[in-house]
């Protein structure tokens, strides 16, 4: 069975540069075959990780 690498990315939301950097990182990882779940795509305010 083949396993796809995956990761959840959580980061500081204190400025727009962080948001852009994480989006760029997540996009590069996805293009390289990693299943990425950045919190900005998956969680909403008050949501949990489960």
List the helices and strands and how they pair.
Layout: E1 6-9, H1 16-31, E2 35-38, H2 39-42
Parallel strand pairs: 1-2
Pfam family, one: TIR_2
Organism: Aliivibrio fischeri SR5
InterPro entries: SEFIR_dom (IPR013568), TIR_dom (IPR000157), Toll_tir_struct_dom_sf (IPR035897)
Structural commentary:
This protein has helices spanning 16-31, 39-42, and strands at 6-9, 35-38. It has 50 residues and is of the alpha+beta class. A two-stranded parallel sheet has the order 1-2. The protein has one domain (6-42). The chain has two helices and two strands; from the N terminus they run βαβα. The radius of gyration is 12 Å and the shape is elongated. Helix 1 (16-31) links the parallel strand 1 (6-9) and strand 2 (35-38).
Strand order of the largest sheet: 1-2
Q: Tell me the overall shape.
A: elongated
Number of strands: 2
Radius of gyration from CA coordinates? 12 Å
InterPro entries: SEFIR_dom, TIR_dom, Toll_tir_struct_dom_sf
Pfam family, one: TIR_2
Domain SEFIR: 4-50
Protein name: Sefir domain-containing protein
What's this model, at a glance?
With 50 residues, the chain is an alpha+beta fold.
Keywords:
50 residues, alpha+beta, two-stranded parallel ribbon
